[in-house]
Amino acid sequence: MNFGSFMEFHTREGNGQEDAFQESFDHVALAEELGLDTVWLAETHFNPNRSVLSAPLVLAAAIAGRTKKIKIGTAVQILPLGNPLRIAEEVATLDHVSGGRFEFGIGRSGLPSAYNGYNIPYTESRERFYEAMEIIKKAFTEDS
Q1: Whole-model pTM?
Q2: Which of 24, 46, 112, 117 is buried deepest, with most CB atoms within 10 A?
């Protein structure tokens, strides 16, 4: 059995965003020290009073540079909000720079507010998710 910690990089009332980042990085360091297997990063958009985790791949790279053993995963990377080829390239790069410690969790999000912020109709989320997933799978498995 594996053990992990789900993280949203919470902001606390009275603290700034820098505090949220530092507290979360400290949490990751403790998780690694305690022997947890994975930290999972939740992608959250347009809610700075709750979370500063709008760029999970960037934060995963920062965590990879600060840790040695713990795996880093997305829970989840919201595929319909990004360019699938760009995501595939970034994920592949992240897996290399982390020494193979990256776990790629994907989803489409149940929060229409994230889509509204990107001017993407939520009604397109399912179709965009499957299209992005197919493109990313091809990027990982086919020669180009």
Answers
A1: 0.94
A2: 24
